[in-house]
């Protein structure tokens, strides 16, 4: 009901690629404002936020809080998340994803000279390397990230070409599966991890363990917390008042 929305709640929204997470919040806020202005003839200001940024090139589950629901969003920053990731062996970018500038190339991978029976990189020996990352690990965040160091975000240091010491984060990789549904040099992973885990960093560190390089090509968040699953999400393109009322999770 409208009273439920005025009180507040949560939404499970599917963010598409090439979109900032805040644009999803702005869309929800605009739909609410327009509807309540039409019904009440007054301009209401709604609190709308999200529970954990997805990079513009990534897609998937984004938890949205409305009104008092925004006070619950910090729980989703810390909660477990599940991702599907597609990586490319053989090159590394400065942002560790497809959006960045190539800074490292492993020529043997990019030329396709690496064979399936290679003792270093092949489907049969990828899983043992991945297993080494399961558990609590110290993970350096990407230089191009929103993590703050001495009051500045890391990407600000990167853009200004300022050197900065980056301390690793302690993160928990609970499960890490090699799906093996694409051919090398591409590789696909399913990851269940704690809040604060950077999948870009995981892809980089995995490749370094293979003595090569890699970058993240595609990322989908398929779950956030225990109950927010991608198959139950409301797609950004379908955000309207009726769907907001239908998908609102009451507090």
UniProtKB/TrEMBL annotation:
GO terms for molecular function: RNA binding; tRNA pseudouridine(55) synthase activity. Its EC number is 5.4.99.25. GO terms for biological process: mRNA pseudouridine synthesis; tRNA modification. Residues 43-199 form the Pseudouridine synthase II N-terminal domain. Pfam families: TruB_N. Keywords: Isomerase, tRNA processing. GO terms for cellular component: nucleus. It comes from the Eukaryota. It is an enzyme of class 5 (isomerase). HAMAP family: TruB_bact. Belongs to the pseudouridine synthase TruB family. PANTHER family: PSEUDOURIDYLATE SYNTHASE TRUB1 (PTHR13767:SF2), TRNA-PSEUDOURIDINE SYNTHASE (PTHR13767). This is tRNA pseudouridine(55) synthase.
